[in-house]
Amino acid sequence: MSGQVYPKDTQTLxxxxxxxxxxxxxxxxxxxxxxxxxxxxxxLKVDGDYIVHCDPDPGYVHRGEEKMxxxxxxxxNIPHLERPVIHxxxxxxxxxCLGVEELLGLxxxxxxxxxxxxxxxLNRCVYTEYWLGIYGIFLGHSTMxxxxxxxxxxxxxLLDKMTGARVTHAYFVPGGVRNDVPANFEDVCLRQVNxxxxxxxxxxxxxxxxxxxxxRTKDTGVLSREDAIKLGTTGxxxxxxxxxxxxxxKEPYDVYDELDFQSPTLKEGDSYARSKIPWxxxxxxxxxxxEALKKMPKSGSVRVKLKPKPKGGDTEIxxxxxxxxxxxxxxxxxxxxxxxxRLKISVGSFRNLIAMPHLLTxxxxxxxxxVYWSLNYWPVEADR
Length: 384
Known about the structure:
Blueprint: E1 5-6, E2 18-19, E3 25-30, E4 41-47, E5 50-57, H1 65-68, H2 78-81, H3 89-104, H4 110-139, H5 142-163, E6 172-173, E7 176-177, H6 185-208, H7 211-217, H8 225-230, H9 235-239, H10 247-250, H11 271-295, E8 314-323, E9 326-335, E10 342-346, H12 348-353, H13 356-360, H14 368-374, H15 379-383
Antiparallel strand pairs: 1-2, 3-4, 4-5, 6-7, 8-9, 9-10
Helix pairs in contact: 3-4, 4-5, 4-11, 4-14, 5-6, 6-11, 7-11
């Protein structure tokens, strides 16, 4: 029998046991070359066309972000902490800034709160369009790659105007944002967001009503509501299985509680539902940005001025936000020094990776790309 340890020798060191060979079973390594999002490996065992065992092997792009944070002060930590997800750098910095602000007792200016929300939603769209484009490559749908990659330039252009950079913006800082937006930004932003929303609505006919995409993703990798909760999934993976949980709604931060938006939820729990939730999220992001532009104060400070090396108290803080991959939290331990004593990052990518063996075991090998990428897994973020 495949997987049976032979011989049963209590003296054998863990990991060195021999497995009885089954001629029907083939071991297949997916990776560790770049499979679309960053270096990682999936060790599959297949019996004919079916996967009988799945063992994800992350860690190839580990950088030691958490340890590096202990050697930099609360301000100089900003540039490197956004690197695990350069396409969603605003959202990965968001919980860090919220936590440091709580440690230092800072009250963020109202205009800065709205600018943060706008930047976070723009970044959510940039990340999701990239994710959707790569999903098109996985499914052999070239148009599904070219459209999102082209359309995301609208959002990248707006972030460039806000922050001065196309990626790795380092825009969020403890106490607010690094700088105010240009004088004509609001009009330009509204115009481009409206056009972007129009483009997104066209995706329904070309992608989500496309019989090829439907046949590749419908009823594949089905994750029940109960299993989604039990496995600790988050974000689009959790909401695609019928669990309505969005931190922007359940634990609102900054001004999200003042904005009217929905948290898209589907109940099918298959790869199709998991691919559709992020698209619906982008439509809601457009709605959030428009309302934030309307309600944002027209003038005022955007940042609390800090000392060069501010010191936190002797305490610990945990803050989390809803990123493009789901719940993203920062646990910060302070010992009254200018740098964190300990920083722990909880990311949605790693939580969703846990569901991969559950979904792929028993699935056809040909369905592996559709199931894998629907989990919204980002190796660089998971390895951090």
